[in-house]
Amino acid sequence: MKRTAKAHWAGSVKEGKGELTTQSEILSKTNYSFRTRFVGDEKGTNPEELLAAAHAGCFTMAVSFALTEKGLNPVSLDTEATVSMDSTGITGIHLSISGNVPGISAEVFEAITQGAEQNCLISKVLNLPISSEAYLVS
Question: What is the pTM of this model?
Answer without folding.
Answer: 0.91
